[in-house]
Amino acid sequence: xxxxxxxxxxxxxxxxxxxxxxxxxxxxxxxxxxxxxxxxxxxxxxxxxxxxxxxxxxxxxxxxxxxxxxxxxxxxxxxxxxxxxxxxxxxxxxxxxxxxxxxxxxxxxxxxxxxxxxxxxxxxxxxxxxxxxxxxxxxxxxxxxxxxxxxxxxxxxxxxxxxxxxxxxxxxxxxxxxxxxxxxxxxxxxxxxxxxx
Length: 197
What we know:
The protein is mostly helical. It contains five helices and six strands. The strands form three sheets. A two-stranded antiparallel ribbon has the order 1-4. Strands 2-3 form a two-stranded antiparallel sheet. The chain has a two-stranded antiparallel sheet with strand order 5-6. The longest helix has 28 residues, at 39-66.
């Protein structure tokens, strides 16, 4: 129980393949060249995510309403700009609010932002006859641009967006010295442990 008990009480775990003897040198390479993704790179990932989700949502809606096994999902090219910009703004909100507000309050704020953004972009696009959505057939719509029926889906989407999309995107890193198509050399730390061959 002696050494095991100490290891379980906070001593750092070291893989068995790593020797602690001084004569066997273990090279640990830190990824000094790794940098967070640029705002443009994150915008691109958010835009693609939103675009994909809209296609999947409309395909699922078509299946539920019309029992269409072809799952024809539809969207508009405008969705790339709308989702990419909106989620990038929500990312900024998340970074400011995460230590100040509980999760459910943050998701409520994101949902209100989503309604404001959807109305604003829809109103602008409608001036050019380019708005790809129309909620006029819903009972609780406002000008056909937003509808209360989507409050729960937007809230759930906000939760998923923060917990899975934004948080994981902010963890991604570029290795500015890496050559395209070549593996990173040599491996660095993997999940806090020394990675060896």
